[in-house]
Every structure is written in structure tokens, then in C-alpha cells.
UniProtKB/TrEMBL annotation:
It holds the Pfam family Peptidase_S24. This is Peptidase S24-like. CDD domains: Peptidase_S24_S26. It is found in: Membrane. It comes from Micromonospora phaseoli.
Amino acid sequence: MPASRLRWPLSAVLVTGPSMAPTLRHGDAVLVRRGGRAIRPGDVVIAVFRTRPDLLVVKRAVRPAGGGWWLSGDNSLVTDDSRAYGVADVQGRVVARYWPRPGRVPSDRL
């Protein structure tokens, strides 16, 4: 999903790929909030890597870095996170999963 599609304060995003398993799985649909409280380490976020501006990703915020965020996937076997692409700019915070298993998406305090 191109980053320009996150235009509303609350947007729906479809998760693709295994990088956030077991927290989020391929095919999960989540609600993303732009604005609101500041991003904290451990939050699940929607972001764009500066080296891959065409790719919108769902990752976990680890720490602020270089004016953006260092991100990590929950599945450590998949390396499509900041280890491969560097710093990312956060577009919003995942607040809930609404399909197929509705519920709050847990934040891990790293």
C-alpha cells in the first residue's frame, strides 16, 4: 500500500507477509491512527523506510534514530526491517485488529 493512501485520522490496512507473526498474521486487517499520542518503543506502527519509500510496512517501533524510528518485525527470522533498510518514518500507530480475530494489538515494552 503506498504511503499516500494513509490520508485519514483512522485508516484500515491489510497486513501482508510473515514479519509480524505471531502478533499479526498475513491477511489480518488493522486500524491505524494518524496523530494522537506520541509513538513509544514497543508500539506496532505503519511506516515507510527511507530507502524504500514505495513500501508501506507494519513493524514494531524499537527506538528513535536519525530523526525517524528503528523498526523490527516480531518474527526474527524475517529480516525485512531496519536491519536491512535502516531508519523509517512512522505514518501511524496500529490501534486494533478487526479481521479475522478482532482485538487490541498488544504493545511490547522493549
